[in-house]
Amino acid sequence: MIWLTRRVLTLFPNTRTNRVVAIRLPFLELNMSLFSIAALQVDWPFGDNRDRLEKETARVLARFPWVKMVVFPELCSFGPGLSFAETMPGPTEIRYQALAKKHNVWLIPGSIYERVGEDIFNTTPVINPGGEVVVRYRKMYPFLPYEKGVKSGTEFVVFDVPEVGRFGVSICYDGWIPETTRALVWKGAEIIVHPTMTGTIDRAQELIIAQASAITNQCYFVDVNNAGQLGNGRSIIVGPEGEIIHQSGEVGEQIPFTVDLNRIREVRRSGTLRLGQILKSFRDTPIDFPCYRGKYKESPSMTALGPLTMPGV
After folding, report:
1. Is residue 312 in a domain?
2. Which residues sit opposite 137 in a β-bridge?
3. Domain range spanning residue 103?
4. How many structural domains does the chain have?
5. Which of 21, 79, 89, 93 has an alpha carbon within 20 to 30 A of 132's alpha carbon?
């Protein structure tokens, strides 16, 4: 594990000169790789849930004040009705910007149906603690043929939390297409935030997919589902070696947890359980996969992992 040292400037009174003396204490070490997230599995009805989202954000931060990011499930603000679609920026997104700024927290409020002309996208905004929308991700794989009338997004989206790490965003059925997670990791994502609205009998399969995605991409995978009328719960948080950090039941639940970015970087460098160096092997392969159109572009984050060699002590 890598530790970052901060020199702390401490003030001591000098009783002989009646002045304050500054002394640097060089040995205080702080682990700057830890970042706390609250995933909220909410049990809300179909309809306008924006007041509920604001109150739930306040409740979780009052209970767990160390949390720096709050994540909600897919389409939890209104449910799956296309009639709720808004332009972005729009009234709902602006309201959530004010909420993030009020609480000084990163906010990923699930997703909202976004209207662009005649098109509708299933879109997740990412809002920083200053209330700014840093990225918007449009779901690339609507759940066809069931999620009718929703257009596919075309851009893989990552964003950086300063001094912490890089996050990727995908939504629900995107996770069934393994290339979506691999593409985010190729762009440097270390944590995948994955809002979901699943109320069907295939939730058991999604739990396996979430765990496999974390294992094969050596990343954290944060799969947050709705409960109640909008989903059947069982949100799951998975660590970079496939360990289940938490799996919920089928009712509303607050899920605070802490990720360790240095741990994920060590797993990627030295291998899962100090064995398989998966991302390096994929990076270094001479194979052109026939199912892909062209090769992956060179990835600075993959290059930074170093050579595929026996891990050191």
Report:
1. no
2. 124
3. 33-267
4. 1
5. 79
Handedness of CA 42, 61, 54, 99 (dihedral sign): negative
DSSP the chain: ---EE--EEEEEEETTTTEEEEEEETT-EE-TTEEEEEEEE-B--SS--HHHHHHHHHHHHHH-TT--EEE--TTTTT-S-GGG-B-SS-HHHHHHHHHHHHHT-EEE---EEEEETTEEEEEEEEE-TTS-EEEEEE-SS--TTTSTT-PPP---EEEEETTTEEEEE--GGGGGSHHHHHHHHHTT-SEEEEEE---STTHHHHHHHHHHHHHHHTSEEEEEE-BGGG-----EEE-TTS-EEEE--SS-EEEEEEEEHHHHHHHHHH-BTTTB-HHHHHHH-----TTSSSPPPP-HHHHTT--------
Residue 277 in domain: no
Encode 201-214: b = buried (16+ Cβ within 10 Å), e = exposed.
eebeebbebbbbbb
pLDDT of residue 24 exceeding 70, the answer is no
Report yes or no on 160 lying in a domain: yes
Opening angle at CA 93, ends 198 and 81, nearest 5? 40
Question: What is the rounded CA–CA span in Å between residue 70 and residue 74?
Answer: 13
pLDDT of residue 130: 98
CA atoms of 6 and 230, how far apart (whole Å) = 46
- Among 26-30, 98-102, 300-304, the range scoring the smallest mean pLDDT is 26-30
- Residue 294: inside a domain, yes or no? no
pLDDT at 15: 42
Residues in the chain: 313
With beta carbons less than 8 A apart as the criterion, state whether 132 and 95 touch: no
Query: What per-residue confidence (pLDDT) applies to 94?
Result: 98
235: amino acid identity, one letter:
S
